[in-house]
Amino acid sequence: MEAYFWAFVVGGLICVIGQLLLDVGKFTPAHTMSILVVSGAVLDGLGLYEPLIDFAGAGATVPITSFGNALVHGALAEAQTTGIIGILTGIFEVTSAGISAAIIFGFLAALLFKPKG
User: Fold this and answer.
1) Where does the chain cross the membrane (predicted)?
2) Do residues 34 and 64 lie in contact, with contact meaning Cβ atoms separated by under 8 Å?
C-alpha cells in the first residue's frame, strides 16, 4: 500500500512541475514536454533517476521524464558494450517499442475517427 502512495506522490509532483511550467512559466506544451524529457535524461546521466524509479515505481516510469531516462540509459548501456556507435543504436533499441506503438495507435486512431477542423 505504501508503494502506491509514493508512486502517486512522485508522479503527481512531476505533473505539478509540468503544470507550473505551463501556467507560471508560460511555456508552450512543446517546450514543457522538452524540458521534462531533458530533465529525465540529465537525472539519469547523473545516476539519480534509477533510484527514483526504485523508490516510486510507476510514479517515475509513467511520466514523460522516463522517456529521457530511457534514451540516456539505453545509450549508455549500449555504449559500454559496443563503443561510440552504441550511443545511437542504444537509443533506438530501448525506445523502439514505445515509438512503434505510438505510430501504430496514432494511425489506427486516424482511420477510426474523423478529425474536426
Assistant:
1) 6-25, 55-72, 84-113
2) no
Percentage, residues of the chain above pLDDT 70: 99
Amino acid, single-letter form, for residue 72: V
Contacts of 101 (CB under 8 A, 6+ apart): none
Which of 100, 43, 92, 90 shows the shortest CA–CA distance to 66? 43
Task: Count the alpha carbons within 13 Å of 33 in the hemisphere toward its beta carbon.
Answer: 5
Angle among Cα 54, 56, 61 to the nearest 5 degrees reads 85
**Is residue 11 a contact partner of residue 56, using CB atoms and an 8 Å limit?**
yes
Q: What is the pTM of this model?
A: 0.79
pLDDT tens track for 71-115: 898 888 889 999 888 888 888 888 888 888 888 998 999 899 877
Cell 561510440 belongs to 84
